Amino acid sequence: MKYLVFLICLFALPASADVYKTVTGDGEVIFSDVPSKGASRVHLPELTTYKSTPLPAGTGTKEEAPEQASAAAYNSFTVSSPEDKATIWNNEGIVNMNVSLDPALLVTSGHKVQFFLDGKPYGKADLSLALSYRGLDRGTHTLSAAVVDESGAALISTKPVTIYLHQASLLHPNNPLYTP
Fold it and tell me: How far apart are CA 164 and CA 139, in angstroms?
């Protein structure tokens, strides 16, 4: 019984490879794999195939990604704004920081940016190259950032930037430097 099913399938395969074209009386064209009265066999061109070029050795495996990440080097990582020794007037204690990284952040290697306020991590490491520090007290603050890997180890850091945050004061309501 098993052999009978196998033989039927074996003989049916070549027949299913043929395509027949029939044109009806009203001009409708029908394609089928079953020959019918007035059908003509359609000769199809060979299938187009594509053979891809092989990948270079050591590309594309997850096991090698950490090795590539550790070997990757960033050329520069700097604070774009604010400038070092900048005086910032903001009553809400908001300071915006932007950093520049060359080459771009290697997200596929699990790299992220960790921002620091006065030497301590500020928030969680993220993919963004910009951050708004909120609720800072008036006074002197040091801002910096570092590119960290998946384990949290710093790969490259910015030079710390010192800022002076000023806020309006009831003691000096007519300060000419303050503009609300």
Answer: 6
